[in-house]
Amino acid sequence: MLDLLAKLLGPHRAVTVYTFLQTRALAIVAVLALLVGGTLFALRGGDTLDHVAYIEARVLTTTPINGDRRNGIIADLRLPDGETLRLTETEGLIAGSLTDMACVELRRDRSGAPAYRLRHPRRCEI
Q1: How far apart are alpha carbons 61 and 6 in whole angstroms?
Q2: Which of 79, 74, 76 has the alpha carbon at shortest distance from 106?
């Protein structure tokens, strides 16, 4: 690299630039990475989901994660319109409260795609 810099900048400046890069390159790369990462984070689209409704779904099966319900469950559900969902829940209060019916929150993103999430049964009570 020193030879390339010597051809581009001359021998004296090449040594100065090479020494600067050797001592400060990591800090420069870190600052540039933070700037690029911060810019990408600030400019990314909002991934917000809007609440649509709470739906009562029939529980088809539940499978404990790692054989213990305290770690969470994988629940197969059937929505009132006939659609079948497989949702994972690791919150113990919700996982422990699933019986034959489950409360599911329907949310939509900006494109209108649905997203489902298990919720505590009291949310579906009117």
Answers
A1: 71
A2: 79
